[in-house]
Amino acid sequence: MTKFCFVIHPLSFEDVVRYEPGAKGKGRPIVAKILEWMPPYAAAHLTGIRTPDGRETEGWFVAAPLLPQQMLELPREQVYERIVGAIRVGAELGAQVAGLGAFTGVVGDGGVTVAQRAPIPVTTGNSLTIAAGVRSLFRGADEMGIDAASSTAVVVGATGSIGAACVELIAPRVAHMILVARNETRLRKFHESVRERLPCASSHTTAIGEAVQRADLVLTATSSTQDVIEPGDLRTGAVVCELSLPHDVSRRVATERPDVLVVEGGNMRVPGDWRAERVREPGTDFDLNLPAGTALACMSETMVLALENRCESYTLGRGIDLDRVREIDALAERDGFALADMRAFDTAITREHLARTRAAAEQRRAVSA
After folding, report:
1. Ordered structural domains, the chain, with CATH
2. DSSP for residue 235
3. For the packed helices 126-143 and 161-170, what is the interaxial angle rounded to 10 degrees?
4. Cα–Cα dist 303/143, whole Å
5. Mean pLDDT of the 349-359 span
6. Roughly what angle, to the nearest 10 degrees, separates helices 322-334 and 161-170?
């Protein structure tokens, strides 16, 4: 059996308490300071991952306990050492391939340096994240009755590794593609490099709000630690697929825009009856703030590599190989992985929720007509 590990880190102070209940009630400045010197550790043992044809894997969540802002602000070498240290912990437990979660796959050069220093192969999981995100976006379009072929789509974070690949995968299925990023020079050069091969009309802008207001479909893939999409930015009946952690869409959208469908695009249902058991408190489940049986797509890519005995650094760096996106998507499907049930803002999206969202969009369009 090939085994894996996956590097996690808290995305918020609420996550710190989920990871370490003993942190509850402590002041945030103290917690942040503790995290700066806290060494990597094994957080959870993952078992019960089983394909339909009976192949199995097991692994570990290994924590590199830094908050997103700390990942960005601390000296790069210090952050690298924390991430590589977490992978060493996983390797000592028996892992033969490692995955990078959240900002551990973003900081620096997108996992390249970490992979060079790690004792086992490393993947960011971005290939399966991209495949799952694009699938989720168009599933949302179907649920909202949007004709994708005549729609305008926006990718926010288009110059990033995930966003750039999503642009090329979404473009064949829409009428107009708008590329959005903060750095105008980099964005313009990227658009110039892909414009001729995009099979739809395309444009680019750094004005996020203006672009989103024109969009039927929005996919976000930024590395921002702040909200980038506010309630007033969104078009009636729009679908927004978030691939970013922390989230890009303001939580106010949930209450102020009942006519808009927001979905978390990177969640997958794991085959088998898998469980994450806390290492330090045996018998206690590790709370990843996801529904039972669900994992992030980047985690799932790491699991797929282990199930397929592909101990290789599958997805690294800023450039994404679209053939690899298609390959890992097919392997995941063969191994029994599938899109998880829709959810947004940490809450399940029920059939009743979808019906209310469609009705609210129709009512708002009628009032505006």
Report:
1. 4-127+269-339 (no CATH), 128-266+342-368 (3.40.50.720)
2. P
3. 40
4. 29
5. 95
6. 80
pLDDT digits (tens, 9 = 90+) for 29-80: 888 888 888 899 999 999 999 999 999 999 999 999 999 889 889 999 999 9
Q: At what angle do helices 184-194 and 161-170 cross, to 10 degrees?
A: 40
Two tokens, residue 312: 């290789």
Q: Is 280 helix (H, G, I), strand (E, B) or coil?
A: coil
Helices (H), the chain: 13-19, 28-37, 68-73, 76-93, 107-110, 112-117, 126-143, 161-170, 184-194, 208-213, 252-256, 297-307, 322-334, 351-368
Return the exposure string of 173-211: e unless at least 16 CB atoms fall within 10 Å of the residue's CB, then b.
Answer: bbebbbbbbeeeeebeebbeebeeebebebebbeebeeb
Q: pLDDT for 307-343, tens place per residue? A: 999 999 999 988 899 999 999 999 999 999 999 999 9
Query: Is a pLDDT exceeding 80 seen at residue 246?
Result: no
- Phi, psi at 272, each rounded to 5°: 95, -160
The average confidence (pLDDT) of the chain is 93
- Tell me the C-alpha distance between 369 and 367, whole Å: 6
